[in-house]
Design brief:
The structure is a homodimer. By secondary structure, chain A is of the alpha/beta class. Chain A contains 7 helices and 9 strands; from the N terminus they run E-H-E-E-H-E-H-E-E-H-E-H-H-H-E-E. In chain A, the strands form 2 sheets. The first copy, chain A, has a 7-stranded mixed β-sheet with strand order 3-2-1-4-6-5-7, with helices on both faces. In chain A, strands 8-9 form a two-stranded antiparallel ribbon. In chain A, helix 1 runs antiparallel to helix 7. The longest helix of chain A has 21 residues. Chains A and B meet through helix 5 and helix 6 of A and helix 5 and helix 6 of B.
């Protein structure tokens, strides 16, 4: 089983520009990546990074400078299935949640993300390919259908939550104790509920 | 097993004010409620509405005019456990997702919602009580802990997604074919992905 985790080495987490400096976004993205790869390892699998450039890691790295869709499709063409791909920002991923992807025997297992994204998938079908964008789930359903592949979707909040937006940082602090959560705490972030709703606040260093 | 679905008869779905008129919000909230109660029935259970006033339904209704927290706590005091409570706007709920709540044998089963809410719970412990607000999940974890109740949390995107905000309407159209989805389609809503990202658009009637 190939388990690939695509990682944008250059400009990760641009939607956190208001909350984090460029350097901080790099560090936070790497903490998320560590949490995802650790969860994959603890689930009993061997992750491999599919990175846009060199990256410091203990795991195998394949470098593809192409954008995400092209990089993943190149790998899908070059390797024999089964291949699984998990986004590097699934900061709530647990070994249990990841293993739920491997249980169905369907040709294609899709893990929906919020807003119609595809946060992870597993394919056992040699003709499956991807087309990542905001609403990629519908495309991936259609592609699977067109090639006659059976499809199962995994219902997981942890895997549906990619850590992209400021509100997602709340989820990290609420649901995990991994590297990303530690990084946020060490950098002054905490949850505050004085106003009733949970808010993310940051103390000055 | 008591299975209660709290329902705000008067002013549901206020966060959809820009998208829907007051009358439309009433109709849409009732469509969501139908989807939730249908999923509960198809899961093999008997739902009961906990409503703020009279409501037309084929199910049993208990009327409590208090705000949500007080109403649920009154019922928890009056009934013998086990009692489960599911929010009326879990528009992606399926029988399968609902049944996942009933599998663990823990004293308290919590179903996290996005942003730290509690979208559903099941209690077998006579002392458990609720305190609903934006970040209620943390409180419910603490309450369970304080009364010595064992806790399990259910990892479900479908149950974590309460249909509150405009972006949630996209999820309804993407993941369901129930009454709420039908209502949206009949009222001109559809998904558009011309701009790459999935957008919700509404045609003039």
């Amino acid at each position: 089983m190939n388990i690939l985790v695509p990682f944008d080495v250059q400009t990760p987490k641009t939607r956190l520009k208001k909350q984090l400096s460029s350097e901080e976004r790099q560090a936070f993205a790497r903490a998320l990546l560590r949490d995802v790869t650790t969860a994959v390892v603890e689930a009993g699998h061997t992750p491999e990074l599919l990175a846009t450039g060199p990256v410091e890691t203990q795991h195998a790295v394949t470098i593809k400078e192409e954008p995400l869709t092209g990089a993943v499709n190149t790998v899908l063409q070059q390797r024999s299935p089964p291949t699984a791909v998990l986004m590097a920002d699934l900061g709530l991923a647990t070994p249990h949640a990841i293993n739920r992807m491997f249980k169905p025997t369907a040709d294609v297992v899709l893990v929906p993300g919020r807003s119609g994204g595809t946060n992870a998938f597993l394919t056992r079908h040699p003709e499956f390919y991807v087309n990542y964008h905001g609403g990629s789930l519908r495309d991936h359903r259609r592609i699977a259908n067109r090639i006659g592949a059976s499809v199962v979707e995994i219902d997981s909040f942890r895997l549906a939550t990619d850590i992209d937006d400021p509100a997602d940082l709340i989820e990290v602090l609420l649901h995990t104790n991994g590297a990303a959560s530690q990084w946020l705490k060490e950098n002054g972030f905490r949850l505050d509920s004085d106003a009733g709703e949970l808010q993310l606040v940051r103390s000055q260093k």
